[in-house]
């Protein structure tokens, strides 16, 4: 079953005198339960692509379908409902609310949907166990480590059982141990809970946890790798090979 379908997507910035083509006729699909990483150097268009899928940016032309619905046509309340119920977001800088505890940050999305308090408690407890953050539920963001904040942010993203989880450089602000722990949890969400994850990263180690990697260069799809039966280490080596092929962008892309 196809959860995300990108069809002939184009995104331009600027005006007629200085037009920048950030995304140049990109098409691909993501099936339910896939964990897809999008890689590319700075300025390759990967973040713009994520912003279009998350409806932060409007597309110039083309279509984005989530669960068969063309989200490029959504407006007003329908757009808000889509963002609230169909998408989960995980940002590099966590975006937690400082005045709320971890529990309240995670529960907020369900409160907005008018879910019963008892059901909220059950679901927060379940996701906290899965992401190993039960011990921080009563803490405020300033009392948590970076890794704990990112796992709380991940819990908030998946608590509503979204069709699609979008992660923008989720390990960018983490040390290597916290990054590894978060990625192991992503694997758990993907394999055990069948979460469909689309993650933008410039880091080959982070991308090696995905089941498929799409490489973008100058707004176009440059290459694509499927992990298949390869070990994570073998997949990492293949990713490095493609990054090397990207040429001058090597230092940016690693």
Question: Which features does this protein show?
Answer:
254 residues, alpha/beta, Rossmann fold, six-stranded mixed beta sheet, four-stranded antiparallel beta sheet, 9 helices, globular
Structural class: alpha/beta
Radius of gyration, in Å, reads: 18 Å
Q: Which CATH architecture of the largest domain is right?
A: 3-Layer(aba) Sandwich
Number of strands: 10
Biggest sheet character: 6 strands, mixed
Topology order in helix (H) and strand (E) letters: EEEHEEHEHHHEHEHEEHH
Query: Could you report the average pLDDT, rounded to the nearest whole number?
Result: 89
CATH superfamily of the largest domain: P-loop containing nucleotide triphosphate hydrolases
The name of the CATH topology of the largest domain is Rossmann fold
The structural domain count equals 2
Strand order, sheet with most strands? 6-7-8-3-9-10
Number of helices: 9
Give start-end ranges of low-pLDDT stretches: 250-254
CATH class of the largest domain: Alpha Beta
Distance between the termini: 32 Å
User: What general outline do the C-alpha atoms trace?
Assistant: globular
**Proportion of residues in β-strands:** 25-35%
Helix content: 25-40%
